[in-house]
């Protein structure tokens, strides 16, 4: 019998390490594989804002693991079948957007975990179950290894942050600066002090609850500022924007 994979990303977080990883919009596995060779810790396969489908996401998970990087899937919404599918295809964890209440957070955990922690459906002929090679007595181990990341990215979620962080088996509270700016009526202004102040308040609450804080950063300077503020899990850029900036740098260097 073969044992299920250990979650290296979760182990790094438990050791207190800072982890960084880009969001992936492209279906070509080359990009996510390169991210692994570049030294990123994880990559978020973005099924919320990209046209990626399930089969493409599964192949991206395979490519990520080949390159030593942990694949995490951001699902489209807090929906049990989507969360289960993301874990069944072998992701190291799920990121679930628009969590606004304790009930939202509890529903997310319930969908991500097998009994007795939740109601995730049993199917061992999946990539997560190693196509039955791992046997049927693996639910406790899969519960232990799966990473649950919830997005708090609006005023209502911020208002309910104390209740959200009280939900067991959530590993990371991911603060979404862009959606938060929109909920404040200043869409896209993630450097506005009102956004920063709310995020800093949330960081204190989350860390006091013993959970990891995550967020998104467009560039290394922003990432370092948030790391200094206590954020441990950084979504750093998007594959398409990383490629665009590299191309722009090359063009500018030659033509200017």
Automatic annotation (TrEMBL):
It comes from Dulcicalothrix desertica PCC 7102. Pfam families: HpcH_HpaI. It comes from the Bacteria. PANTHER family: 2-KETO-3-DEOXY-L-RHAMNONATE ALDOLASE, PHOSPHOENOLPYRUVATE CARBOXYLASE FAMILY PROTEIN. Residues 22-245 form the HpcH/HpaI aldolase/citrate lyase domain. Keywords: Lyase, Metal-binding. Belongs to the HpcH/HpaI aldolase family. This is Siderophore biosynthesis protein SbnG. GO terms for molecular function: aldehyde-lyase activity; metal ion binding. GO terms for cellular component: cytoplasm.
